[in-house]
Amino acid sequence: SSGTMVTPVLSPRSHRSSTPLFMPLPIFSTFEVVPFFLMMSFAFVMVWKGRKNHPNKAALLWSLGSSTVAFFGAGVWGFLHTLHGVNFYSHGTQITAAHGHLSFYGAYVALNLAMFSYAMPMLRQRAPYNQVLNMASFWLMTGGMAFMTFVLTFAGTIQTHMQRVVGDYYMDVQESLSLFYMMRFGAGVAVVIGALLFLYAMLVVRKEEIIEPGPANPVPGE
Question: What is the widest separation between alpha-carbon atoms in the chain?
Fold first, then answer.
């Protein structure tokens, strides 16, 4: 049907319903790691050329973190299970969840928080504020999301073997993964605390800056 024909094109990691005609598609999707690596490299090169003197260091950290986490989440973790020989077994397991969590956090969440961190001081007409708390929220959220990704990756690997290779029942497999889910819950708590800390850093006014801002005028790159 036409739906079967379109599915592999729209979702490069969904190959269960693909026909032999579309089998080469996963090979092309492996190359998506290249633009993510180039974007990450570009971000670090631009910061290096600017001599790291941007006054809003929190926004700078979120920007670099966004490109880095997106590279690992969408690029590396996507590459790990994109080939149809692997994806046939792993699709829909916790490996997919691990890839989705890290890639969406890097490509969308961190990018939006970088824009908030950059724009809010200008919109509220005051210098960058609560940068230490803002950067602490970055490390808390990013660390929690990274730990969650590793936990889900290990859980997905076990799930793939038990459910897709051995053929155990879904609920029996889920019960055996309870320890991983508890660790995932702990990582989620860290992310929520980091998000609340970010909101506090954005909305609560400080009387003075903790971090000495750099020069207002950026240094031109060479």
Answer: 65
